[in-house]
């Protein structure tokens, strides 16, 4: 990994860790696979920290620009995947 996660340094240490877990889940969807349950758990926590749609878009767009991984496509895939399923995307 040769990029940085987009973070807001006004967040607590716990919030920063949880946002990083969300972005790591996005990475897993592309690099191997991630269960819908695990991904949605990290996404719901991310949304607690970043509740606004515009802020969510800014952070996920910044992540996509630096990593090439689209959080939007993983979220979309998760919503279309049956419970108990796996999310697998290719770059």
UniProtKB/TrEMBL annotation:
It comes from the Bacteria. InterPro entries: BH2638-like_sf, UPF0223. Gene3D superfamilies: BH2638-like (1.10.220.80). Pfam families: UPF0223. Belongs to the UPF0223 family. This is UPF0223 protein AC625_06990. It comes from Peribacillus loiseleuriae.
